[in-house]
Design goal:
With 186 residues, the chain is of the alpha+beta class. Helices cover 31% and strands 31% of the residues. The chain has three helices and ten strands. A hairpin with a 2-residue loop joins β7 and β8. The longest helix has 32 residues. The radius of gyration is 26 Å and the shape is elongated.
């Protein structure tokens, strides 16, 4: 008989997998993924520490007044004004979440379920525009409402996307009109 026929007649096939080596590789891969995740988390915490000089976020007044505009959508994050990749993570501003925005004469109230709410007083508002990206989130041209505001002596851009994108233009016009009126009153 030829050796090929002998192999075909064998009652048990040869082991195909070396289980020890396979388990070793899987454990190594899991440890590598855990290390990368841990390093990313430490980098996020370090960025928050570096931004620790930012003052606390303002809270909404008890009676902010009648709502001029409301919007339901997503909060995509905040960055240093004019630097769309320099994410701000201090005080929970780096956490993406659902958001309910309410614009009153007192300012812009941002309610975020599961994340820190914040309030931007009218005096702190600096501008509003439509843009296409902020801190790792890129959308179609004009798909993002970006509000520029001051927190202490730092200018911040915060990005929002409405569930109904047609609302963005009205928000930009109203916010910029409010800012112009506020600056004229000073």
């Amino acid at each position: 008989m030829t050796p090929v026929i002998l192999l075909a007649e064998a009652k048990k096939s040869a082991e195909v997998t070396d289980w020890g080596a396979r388990i070793g590789w899987l454990v190594g891969l899991a440890l590598f993924i855990a290390l990368v995740y841990w390093l990313m988390r430490e980098g996020w915490k370090w960025r928050g520490t570096l931004q620790g000089d930012l003052p606390a976020l303002p809270t909404a007044p008890e009676r902010p007044g009648e709502a001029r505009l409301t919007m339901s959508g997503r909060y995509h994050g905040s960055t240093t004004a004019g630097q769309w990749l320099d994410r701000i993570v201090a005080h929970g501003l780096g956490t993406r979440s659902r958001a309910e925005l309410t614009l009153t004469d007192a300012g812009l109230e941002v309610e975020r379920p599961g994340a820190t709410d914040f309030f931007v007083p009218t005096a702190a508002l600096r501008g509003a525009r439509l843009d296409k990206g902020i801190a790792g989130k890129v959308l179609t041209e004009g798909g993002l409402l970006v509000v520029t505001w001051a927190l202490g002596d730092k200018l911040i851009d915060s990005g929002f996307r409405s569930d109904r994108a047609a609302e963005h233009t009205e928000w930009v016009d109203t916010l910029n009109h409010m800012i112009t009126d506020t600056e004229g009153a000073r």
